[in-house]
């Protein structure tokens, strides 16, 4: 039997279990797989959090418990974007928990 903790990515350990949080303007900070983070940034849905590093800064990555795929997702402006946000949130939770069937 597979140990469920082995499904959890290193990112979840770095973030001490935080998947993300929402802000008053409906923007959200969330963690993603590297592939999803790349797509979200390329599609202008997100930007990397200012503390999220993919290359060493001051000799370190993952400073302050923030991994490189921590993104700020822009808040939805209409119902269509809200649906997209639902998919984005689901993908973040799947990645951070290692559970595919949500």
Task: Write structural notes for this entry.
It is built from 3 helices and 4 strands. It has helices spanning 10-14, 34-42, 79-97, and strands spanning 20-22, 28-31, 46-48, 70-73. The protein has a 4-stranded antiparallel sheet with strand order 1-2-4-3, covered by helices on one side.
Mean pLDDT score: 85
Q: What distance lies between the first and last C-alpha atoms, to the nearest angstrom?
A: 21 Å
> What is the helix content?
25-40%
Regions with pLDDT < 50 over 5+ consecutive residues? none
Tally of helical segments: 3
> How many strands, which pairing sense, and closed or not: the largest β-sheet?
4 strands, antiparallel
How much beta, percentage-wise? Answer: 5-15%
Shape: globular
- The total beta strand count reads 4
Alpha-carbon Rg, integer: 14 Å
- Reading the helices and strands in chain order gives HEEHEEH
List the strand order in the largest sheet.
Answer: 1-2-4-3
Look at the helices and sheets and give the structural class. Answer: alpha+beta
Q: Which tags fit this structure?
A:
alpha+beta; 4-stranded antiparallel β-sheet
Short description:
This protein has 102 residues and is α+β, with helices and mostly antiparallel strands.
